[in-house]
Amino acid sequence: MIRLESLTKAYASPQGTVAAVDRVSLEVREGETCVLLGPSGCGKTTTLRMINRLVVPTSGKIFIAGRDTEAVDPVELRRGIGYVIQQIGLFPNMTVAENIGVVPRLLGWPQTRRRERAAELLALLALPPAQFADRYPNELSGGQAQRIGVARALAVDPPLLLMDEPTASLDPERREELGELLQGLLRQQRTLVVSTHDEEFARAFATRVVRLRDGVVET
What we know:
Blueprint: E1 2-13, E2 16-28, E3 33-37, H1 44-51, E4 59-64, E5 67-68, H2 74-79, E6 81-84, H3 96-100, H4 102-106, H5 111-124, H6 129-132, H7 142-153, E7 160-164, H8 172-187, E8 191-196, H9 199-205, E9 208-213, E10 216-217
Parallel strand pairs: 3-8, 3-9, 6-7, 7-8
Antiparallel strand pairs: 1-2, 1-4, 4-5, 9-10
């Protein structure tokens, strides 16, 4: 499903060139949940952002479903990848249903279909649509907002889902709930790549753990 070949991202600094990610090579099979595990600053987020081309690699290649992502229009590429960012990033001026429907709206889905898809995903995530569809982000708890972020990433049913530090702002109970949600997504044979520094959480649901330190895969 995903293949990274000698992926590198270097930045200039007062001390010289620094590699945030240094020649990372790995494969993630279809239906696998691969966790990038490591401390802050180890290159996890940069790796995710290079997969969906929010960050352009300095060198190396990324292949998704056999396609070189460098040869694919970035907007087209991202529409096929669900991305749950660390800060959740819901639009404060949009309702929950409107947030979930952002990408479907860009793809030209009619309002009725967008509303139905939002209701379907809210029900899947144990958030009753009648109670949550018309709320605004400031009316949600942290755990609820995290679930809406997941719903938005799943709106057009992408085969690949990226999640950046999904447990960062959650208490232990909410982390357990999120783990159960991810297990459910795994049963749908969806491919997930998740970054986290939480080893306990990683081992609870990952089918594969890749350790990163200073931008390098630990062996």
